[in-house]
Amino acid sequence: MNLIIVSTGTSDPVVLTCGTDSGGTDSDGRKWEPDTKFLVSAANSLAATAQVQDPSLPSPVPYMSARIMNGETTYKFTVNSTSRYSLRLHFYPATYGSLNITNSYFSVNVNGVTLLNNFSAAITALALTQAYIIKEYDLAATEVAELSLTFKPSDNHTGAFAFVNGIEVVALVPEMFDSATMVGFSDQTIDEKTAHLETLYRLNVGGNYIPPTNDSAGLLRTWYDDTPYLYGANAGVTSSTTGDGKNAVVQWKETPRYTAPEDVYVSWRSMGPDPNLTLHYNLTWLFQVDPNFMYFVRLHFCEHLYTKTNQRVFYIYINNQTVVPDGADVIAWAGAKDVPIYKDFAIFVPNTTGDAQLWLALHPKDQNNGDAPPEYYDAILNGLEIFKVNDGKKNLAGPNPTPSEALLKAEESQRQAFTNDSNKENIKVIGAASGAAAFGVAAVVCIAMHQKKTRYRQYF
Predict the structure, then answer these.
(1) Which of 3, 5, 9, 203 gives 62 a disulfide partner, CB atoms 3.0 to 4.6 angstroms apart?
(2) Would you give the distance in Å from CA 8 to the centre of its chain?
(3) Who's near 342: CB < 8 A, 6+ residues apart?
(4) How many other CB atoms are found less than 10 A from the CB of residue 189?
(5) What percent of the chain clears pLDDT 90, i.e. is strictly above it?
(6) Furthest-apart CA pair in the chain: how many Å?
(7) Average pLDDT over residues 343-358
């Protein structure tokens, strides 16, 4: 285990580096301390160093060192029993000593909540075409002043072992979650306060990547660009504002500042000003999820252009269901221009044939139902978060993803390239094959996404 950040009940997280005796500093300047004093026992674990550093790693710390666990291993941390906690697990499935990373299958449990089961970081990284994996969880208040985090190698695989490259635990205010409106039943809500959640997506819509050091309230969240998740030929229009120079760009009122950094609310994606275009497409995002789970979808809004109600009103659809029957009017929700607001919705994704998907679509309100039509046929979104909700057995674990056949063939072809060119200088072979592999994987991913998009509805 490389990294552990643990809050002691205050707003300042404690940062621990695991698998090393000296600690370290990451690329953002954060310092990490050794982890050994939080181990209940080190008898079933050992420290290890990755043999190769992938160029896509954000920092050597914490990913280049790891704690390998050959048996059940537990960490214990003192926490505030009334607070929610954000728990992040970092995995870099590389070669550690003589261990074969493909033999790593394990479960992770915290205070009776199953986070991962039979988890393979190697398979997950291959399927997602990523060098490292970050799993993030938002845990409800524990009712005990302790977090007990246990890693256990799988009993179903010979020679299985567990490993982890980083853990962060950051205290959240209890009010971070309250209730979510049930999609399809606008008069019903789902309690968020007692739910354990896995954060699947956190996007700065229409804006740039926001690193943990720039997050609000020191919560160390990462906000990603939404572009990879857009579906369809029309991606809308991105905009941002720096204000008028006289007043604050964002007027914080009922929405707490810890909800999201200001950078989320000063940029947005809209559909555009031309009704001849906007009325004939949906602004759509597509996400892969696990079936048979409830999901919370948090949408962030901040209207910077208009000042009156019924100027920009639009429909929001989640998995083809209207979530606001009368249409979303940000000014009506927030009360004024430049005021941030967010809305939470809940939807259950059943087991279906093929990949389970959650998709979000926006469309201008074009059915007046006796109401006056909006002044502008447009829609807007500033930020987006999607959380998986634990089931009745306190389980958040899903199956390992399945790499596509095309991706596996691309990987095999690159391995053959190494073999066929083995008579060349090693450094040339490595450089050429690595570049070809990266290009091949990217091509496979693009082809797969294109094939999926051709089957996806673009307009209601």
Answers:
(1) 3
(2) 24
(3) 255, 259, 260, 298, 299, 300, 301, 383
(4) 15
(5) 69
(6) 77
(7) 90
Secondary structure string (H, E, C) spanning the chain: CCEEEEECCCCCEEEEECCCCCCEECCCCCEEEECHHHECCCCCEEEEEECCCCCCCCCHHHHCEEEEECCCEEEEEECCCCCEEEEEEEECCCCECCECHHHCCEEEEECCEEEEEEECHHHHHHHHCCCCEEEEEEECCCCCCEEEEEEEECCCCCCCCEEECEEEEEEECHHHCCEEEECCEEEEEEECCCCCEEEEEEEECCCCCECHHHCHHHCCCCEEECHHHEECCCCCEEEECCCCCCCCCCCCCCCCHHHCCHHHHCEEEECCCCHHHHCCCCEEEEEECCCCEEEEEEEEECCCCCCCCCCECEEEEECCEECCCCCECHHHHHCCCCCCEEEEEEEEECCCCCCCEEEEEEEECCCCCCCCCCCECCCEECEEEEEEECCCCCECCCCCCCCCHHHHHHHHHHHHHHHHCCCCCHHHHHHHHHHHHHHHHHHHHHHHHHHHHHCCCCCC
Q: Do 123 and 56 contact (CB within 8 A), yes or no?
A: no
Place of tokens 């009325």: 279
Residues in the chain: 460
CA angle 291–322–228, rounded 5-degree value:
60
**Rg from Cα positions in the chain:** 23
Residues sharing a CB contact under 8 Å with residue 302, sequence separation 6 or more, in sequence order = 250, 265, 266, 268, 330, 334, 338, 339, 340, 341, 382
Residue 412: pLDDT band (50, 70, 90) is low
CB count in 10 Å sphere of residue 28: 13
Strand 31-34, strand 13-17: pairing = parallel
One-letter identity of residue 7: S
For residue 133, the cross-strand partners are 91
Residue 338's identity, in one-letter code, is D
- In this prediction, residues 429-433 reach a mean pLDDT of 31
The whole-number pLDDT of residue 410 equals 65
